Amino acid sequence: MLFDKSKIYILVLLVFFSCGKSTKDKEKMNKIVVAHRGASGYLPEHTMEAKAMAYAMNPDYIEQDLVLSKDNVPIVIHDVYLDDVTNVAQLFPDRKREDGRYYVIDFTFDELQQLKVTERFDPKTGKQYYPQRFPKGKGNFKLHSLQEEIELIQGLNYSTGKNIGIYPEIKNPEFHHKNGKDIAKIVLEILSNYGYTTKEDKCIFQCFDAKELERVRKELKSELFLVQLIEFPEETKELKHFASYADGLGPWYTQILDEKVNDKWKFTSLVAEAHELGLKVHPYTFRADQLKEFSSFDEMMQVLLFEANVDGGFTDFPDKMVSFLNK
């Protein structure tokens, strides 16, 4: 059959746009969205409610910060302290340490279940850190274990047909060691029991402590995808060493930005150097209510995800990041 010129033109356009779409989709799919402490821009961080809301927003991964209880249960909470996200000072006034702080590690899991979780606040002033977020003291939120959260996410994966992953971080392993606890070993065993053992199992394991993360790979023989978190500029000089045991890098996003010239951002060499060493780059934290260097959340996403070419990132607003990537 012969085609006239108009039909050929239409076919060429269809091929052109389908090729462009597949390229764009492939580029988009390479950018992962990590729900930072769940949908923490909308509900108190690391609560089951925040995780369920995050799940419904279709991120690629949901993050779990982990601290051990007195009876060795990994608790999903951002730090070793309790007094900036719970009412522990009211319920257990005599359980603070000499520094005036209340520590997760001094309470059993059953005791921790008695606490009420609230939006993050300054324990000295009582002032809420992010005033436009969920009102402090409202609701009936509780702490939970890593096992409970895994079962929520795996159960939702089963009932919805999705495959949303987990992104656990062990907090302050040196503190745990000093208190006679091996958080890395305990968490890895739990992850293994739930089927997370290799890089293909939709679990990314992260830590700020380079010595401990290297131990996870070399001594504890983990085959999970490992991400080395970094906070300070001098740590960027250790990329080659990080690449000897880790698969990715998690920098504070400002470590990627250099300067803005004529409304155009210039970048440090961090991302390029990491990619050259085979490391994925997942910076933290993209917050729509704390933009600082940017005029809008979309500008932040455009600059970091595509101009700086990072591989994904952590966000308190997973719905906004997913929406941007879907545009």
From TrEMBL:
<protein>
    <recommendedName>
        <fullName>glycerophosphodiester phosphodiesterase</fullName>
        <ecNumber>3.1.4.46</ecNumber>
    </recommendedName>
</protein>
<dbReference type="GO" id="GO:0006071">
    <property type="term" value="P:glycerol metabolic process"/>
</dbReference>
<dbReference type="Pfam" id="PF03009">
    <property type="entry name" value="GDPD"/>
</dbReference>
<keyword id="KW-0319">Glycerol metabolism</keyword>
<dbReference type="GO" id="GO:0008889">
    <property type="term" value="F:glycerophosphodiester phosphodiesterase activity"/>
</dbReference>
<keyword id="KW-0732">Signal</keyword>
<keyword id="KW-0378">Hydrolase</keyword>
<dbReference type="GO" id="GO:0006629">
    <property type="term" value="P:lipid metabolic process"/>
</dbReference>
<feature type="domain" description="GP-PDE">
    <location>
        <begin position="31"/>
        <end position="325"/>
    </location>
</feature>
<dbReference type="InterPro" id="IPR030395">
    <property type="entry name" value="GP_PDE_dom"/>
</dbReference>
<dbReference type="InterPro" id="IPR017946">
    <property type="entry name" value="PLC-like_Pdiesterase_TIM-brl"/>
</dbReference>
<comment type="similarity">
    <text>Belongs to the glycerophosphoryl diester phosphodiesterase family.</text>
</comment>
<dbReference type="GO" id="GO:0042597">
    <property type="term" value="C:periplasmic space"/>
</dbReference>
